[in-house]
Give the backbone structure.
Amino acid sequence: MSRQRLGLPRSQRSQGTFRGGYSPANTKPKHGSYISSDRFINKAEPVETAEVFIPRHKFADFPFDERLHRNIVAKGYEIPTPIQDEAIVPVMAGRDLIGLANTGTGKTAAFLLPIINRFLVERQGLALIVVPTRELANQIDEEFKGFARGLNLYSALLVGGASMGAQINALQRRPQFVIGTPGRIKDLINQGRLRLQTTSVLVLDEADRMVDMGFIRDIRFIIGQLPEKRQSLCLSATMTPEIERLVNELQINPIKVSVRTSETSDHVEQNIIKAVSRDHKTQILRELLGQPEFSKVLIFGDTKYGVQRLADNLAKDGIKTAAIHGNKSQPQRQRALEAFKKEQVQVLVATDVAARGLDIPNVTHVINYDQPKTYDDYVHRIGRTGRAGARGNALTFVQG
Ligand code: AMP
């Protein structure tokens, strides 16, 4: 792989920054929070070496209600992904689930489809789906709406940064599905607007992210409101001791499905770009964004302010740019995301928190304008490119 193909600016091409032999270790950085820049370099494995997955089922084999089958066909799903293949049957049988799976594995349908089917059969109860971010809640709600079309099943989306009034109205319509972020769910419980006594299914999605983001107390509070007799599904990209404790308290004899794939590092060509200052970084960035292969670029910055400033600067240069960070309202975040997904803008500049769990197809490049704080964050960031077996590119600025 030549540096030419990576599209590095001319000034970087002679510096020998590319090195092979990267070991995809996922251990903590060696020097406190500093991550050795060697770890931002990886020669992508050829995509063809990916293991071929042979599913045991087709969607048509699952004993779903006919109407649900029709909606699945309408969404174009035929072959289950590995987590769907393994989890759908036991979850339909009422088992608790630990799913070790990251975004892009099809985990959402793996839990939504059996739950939707359960509601078609039982016609009572409540499904509570708790997730770390507003965007992920939105994504799950969209997926739910596709599968539940015409089935008389409804959802309420309870997320921060959006009007409480509209959410309270949605709850008054007695939805069977409540999808939300921990803080807003807790607020609505405290206001007496959300009662969880009838909850028959709990889903914790991206449980490790929720713990990382400091939501563990809110989650424990929410779990405390639930009846003992219920089904509990826990999805997490990693199994940390804290998640293990949570799962032990939460679940009875769960089935464990692990599909954590190498969607991230292996298929992503990773390299570093040396820059001496912020101005220098922005100058290199402009040069990169002028190259035609940089057509859908996700850039990570570490502060809300820095992300907005960079987005404003790029926009001033005539580069179509959107930004997504915690200071934006929910509708603004949603609009920015849609514009990027639909390729109406070339660049999305984001903070880690805002970009967690997003499913954005065909991102050509992830650029770490600021370095991530942990290696785990790095792997998560670069997982936004090279999805679904496609090849991706990740570039990280280092001081040099
Ligand atoms: P997720 O990991 O749940 O965020 O899903 C990632 C993407 O894959 C979403 O756009 C889903 O709509 C899509 N997807 C999930 N399962 C399937 C499937 N069996 N067939 C086709 N597309 C799927």
Q: What stands out?
A: The pocket of adenosine monophosphate is lined by residues 77, 79-81, 84, 103-109, 359 (CB under 6 Å).
